[in-house]
Design brief:
four-stranded mixed sheet; 18 helices; 11 strands; 426 residues; binds protoporphyrin IX containing FE; single chain
Amino acid sequence: MDLPPGPRAPAAWQTVAWMTRPAAFMRRVHERFGDPATIRTYWTEQPMVLFSHPDAVREVFHLDPEIAPAGQSWEFLRPFAGPHSILLLDGEEHLRERRLLQTPFHGARMRAFAPMIGELARAELSGWSGPVIALERMRSLTLEVILRVVFGVRDDREEAELRDVIEGTLGGVRSLPRMLSMALIQRDLGPRSPWGRFRVAVERFDALLFEFLARRRADPGGDSVLTLLLEQRDEDGNRPTDRHLRDQLVALLVGGHDSSAASLAWAFERLARHPAVLARLREGDPTYLDAVVKEVLRARPALTIAPRLLLAPARIAGRTLPAGVQVAACLWLAMRREDLWPQAAAFRPERWLEAPQPNPMSWIPFGGGVRRCAGAPFAEMEMREVIRAAAWLTIRPIGPRPERARRSMLVVTPDRGGEILVVAGL
Ligand code: HEM
């Protein structure tokens, strides 16, 4: 069975392009080889077939998890994510975990968190003046949101302890050379090797988190996602174990921290270059605010692919693909198709206020099917709260060139971190 065409450059070269210039790489692959196309990188052991047409994307999202599990694509996260992690499970176990984890992220329970997020956002932005690297600040803010709203930390000391240990763990894997070296050799070469240091950091993190969970079990009150997770009961009425809760909190942290920070950094990078959008945001129309959030997620998605590993041959877009390859809905390409998005490269929130509305399988920043982002409503709410507050800043880009995309761990961020000049603060 032949795979669709793709670059013949060595995997090492494709890996570097995929990491350092992902947008340009995907665009070139698409222009040269069309849809679908096959890439080979060290990101996954297997070749990866990228699809972007909405019909093919729907087929990828609806593949039977028995033959196309998504959990296996995240296998490299296991040492941090843990064995109960929704990210790694598939089939029935995954659905069971998903039902538990999604409960706090729906309806009124979730909306109740909005005022707290708005307050944290305004407190962060009120300190801004002069040059700001939005990505750094948004990493700090989205971590604070997770610690306060999801973990339910109650005071500055608890927050500082957890923040410190989380930054120590994630900091080690975000840098490009370290990440490449870890992707190539996930072997423990002693406590001073990058992988060894990462393992030690995870142990420190676990010890602190178990202490924290013990305190919360003893005194569970308060409004947080953890409070709701502590109320969970499985089909047999059992409470979650500490290990299970730990893996749930880590899944929400891994899923929700860098992805939200990257999306918000892109929001600042785009808004600084589009003062008319900021001006219109100040009019306070919630529909327009929603359009800005959707357009940031379309034009600069934080995740570029939703991959599934084929365990048996499968037919997608009229073509049979063999077992042993990764198939991916390419989120980035799907949201850049000129046939579906007129002036696809332009940042134009107004498109969301015009008819006709896009095909749902062409706006897929949160992936789709049974693996669609479990925190999507929360992520959109967080972005709305931050952007609503940011509309009152006067900001300019620092450099004239729009920022390029580059990878940082699992997400795609602006290459200069979303650098802006805050001319007038809140
Ligand atoms: C703008 C921010 C975010 C973006 C762009 C994003 C995007 C995604 C994507 C693309 C996936 C994979 C979907 C697939 O494979 O089809 C995913 C999965 C997931 N996300 Fe998000 N996410 C964001 C924020 C969040 C937040 C805030 C949380 C939680 C608080 C979260 C929790 C998760 C979880 C738990 C999964 C795994 C779902 C599963 O495997 O069933 N995400 N996200």
